[in-house]
Amino acid sequence: MHAENSSGLGTDEVRRRHIIVKAVLVGLVAGLIGSAFRLSLEGIEALRIEVVHNFSGWISLPVALALGAVGGGLGVWLVRRFAPHATGSGIPNLQSVLRREAEPEWKRLLPVKFLAGVAGIGGGLALGREGPTVQMGAASGFMVSEWFKVKAGEGERRALMSAGAGAGLAAAFNAPLSGLIFVLEELHGAFTPVMFVAAFLASVTADVVSRLLIGESPVFHFVGLTAPGVASLPWAAVLGVAMGALGVMFNRGLLATIGLRERLLRWPAFAVGAAAGVFVGFVGWTVPGLAGSGGELVQLALSGSIAVGLLPLFLLARFSLTLVSYSSGAAGGIFAPLLVLGALGGLWFGVGVHHFMDGPVAISPQVFCVLGMGALFTAIVRAPLTGIILMIELTGTYGFMLPLLVSCLGAYGVAEAMGNTPIYEALRQRSIHSVELAKAKAAERKAAREGTSHAGS
Q1: Does residue 311 form part of some domain?
Q2: Mind listing the pLDDT tens digit for each residue in 202-243?
Q3: Within a domain: residue 371?
Q4: 9 pairs with which residues across the strands?
Q5: Of 34, 135, 382, 390, which is the most exposed, with the fewest CB atoms less than 10 Å away?
Q6: On the CB side of 353, how many CA atoms lie within 13 Å of its CA?
Q7: 228: helix, coil or strand?
Q8: Both 73 and 103 in a single domain?
Q9: pLDDT score, position 456
Q10: Closest listed residue to residue 85, CA positions, set 402, 406, 338, 428
Q11: Residues 91 and 206 grouped into a single domain
Q12: Which structural domain range is residue 107 located in?
């Protein structure tokens, strides 16, 4: 039997009964923060679109560019100035914290991540709220652990942070099971009773809070979408292979874009964010709906309301916008952008399948939007269970399970065969390398100064 300390912890692992109240509290806090963030983003994005639409013709272009520049610039500046660990989705930083490679922090992270995310995504950057909500949820878990004076270095603090991360994802998508599976599959890659209990309670609590404050409607609305049958499985496999290749392209393109920006654009933080905002603002002005998180674009794809001829253009545009937006260092995630890419690519593929199978056995093209989102998520993040459960919770249809399994398996196999590192792991490794490189350069400069000093004496 494990020895216990004053907070009710075992030396190796926390006993489940000691974490129940704390996990529920973490879910409550993460649900409130996630809901507030979601409502704030919806409000600021709607305001940006309304302001641009209030101007007619070419006059609206400088307005769109200015809003993008201010939003992007402010978002990147806040991150670099006050909380560099709040950059991007924050999930790689969270993984480093859970592996004890970085120190947890919440007092600056929460306000900076919230405000920077609202500024950048609200200004039109093609980023999502889900990653930031996960990181803020984890920060709320650390905050609650400090309230209860949980000792560092023991299992309970990490369990509460992980539970908060799952709660953040649950609040973002109204998907509590996805939050739970994300914690077990992506953050830890292992199942322990304590982690399961904490993540489950926090995710369910956050989902209840989100539904009470925002509503019980799913994030995406599927009207008249019939689950595909066994006839769809070969096509699901082909789509999975295609999405696997696209996912590898996305991962490599994102890392290359970040590296290119760091080498070529050594500008002040505001200038980097403003440049990204101007680019995104111009594209969004040219084709309304392409900028921002992209939720409306997914909804249009699911309803089949996008012209077939525009799908390749939209797919390429969103691919480019996401790379530029994320590489700027703004606070925003890739969950929503990759779902947009999966929906657009899936619909494009589905239109071709529909024409090929025209007749009584034809499959609705919108079905492949769902399969495309799940497969691309799997290829990029390499978390197939999370992708499958997330799509089922978003559709509310268990009938998608079998084709999702096939498409996600195909995407996973392609990404593994191509030797591609999952995006969050790649970003984590990159961050560690950057820190080590910065320390080495600082040591070299210090040694050079000391050498000069000795020579002078």
Answers
A1: yes
A2: 999 999 999 999 988 777 776 667 778 888 899 999 999 999
A3: yes
A4: 14
A5: 382
A6: 25
A7: coil
A8: yes
A9: 58
A10: 428
A11: yes
A12: 16-214
